[in-house]
Amino acid sequence: MARKQARRRKPGKPRRMQVPKLRVGRIIAPCIAAAIIFAAYDVSSRLLDRPIQSIEINGPLQRVTALQIEAAISDELDAGFLGTDLSRMQALVQGLPWIDQASVARRWPNRIAVTVSEQEPAAVWGERGLLNVRGELFVRSARHVPAELPQLSGPDARSGEVAKRYLEVREKLIPIGLDLRRVHLNARGAWQMTLQNGLEIRLGRREIDKRTSLFLDVVASIITGRAADIEYVDMRYSNGFAIGWKNGARTPGRNPQHVKVEKEMLASRGSP
User: Same structural domain for residues 264 and 210?
Assistant: First the structure.
């Protein structure tokens, strides 16, 4: 009986841990396949990537020449048909003066196509700067300034604001027979506009939107038939405005005579 108990008390043999067997083939096979794909891609790229033989330039060109566009991207052409950076080429073309938008694409087998659109000048900025239709200053010193363009001026950082006000005001003046020629914003923030016939509208620095609306809604219709006799309209009043007449009396050493017109008197106001 004692022997049986002794036998039972003997410790059992320690179990051996079995390490899972890894099949080398399952690891090597994907690596070999990836290497083959990479090698095939590299070889095909080398075979397909050929020197660029020609550049195709599309778009109406008036201010920029095809030679200027080609010169801008010439250094990028050495990278080859597939190796060239299209985004880089596009940025170089759009960096040229008078270029508004540009796109660059590959044309198989060895040609690069460049499509461009030029800036459309909408106004003169300052002395010789030019604004596009979005009010952006794209040329700071133009060789030729079109005489027919309106003249806008002010701090360069506010060119878009000046252009926006010009477009808004002109859009409402045209239907009543008036046209806007100049808009000026000085360094102190005072606004002044000049009509096509030379009549000045002085808006000042405060409540510009309110004064502009008053001029468009009330004053513009009054001066339409007599603009040739008016020298200026002064909107810098809290309860009305002033009209300066060209034939008004002038006193030496004093401001020119002007006639103040209250809003409630507009309907019955006669000529001076």
Answer: yes
Lateral strand order in the sheet of 111-118: 54-58, 111-118, 99-107
254 and 126 assigned to the same domain? yes
Q: What is the pLDDT of residues 55-108, one digit of tens each?
A: 999 999 999 999 999 999 999 998 888 889 999 999 999 999 899 999 999 998
Q: Which domain holds residue 97?
A: 54-118
Note whether 248 and 272 are within 8 A (CB): yes
CA distance 2 to 5: 5
What's the one-letter identity of residue 97? P
Overall average pLDDT of the 121-140 stretch: 93
Q: Nearest 5°: phi and psi at 56?
A: -105, 125
Residues 185 and 217 placed together within one structural domain of the fold: yes
**pTM of the entire predicted model:** 0.67
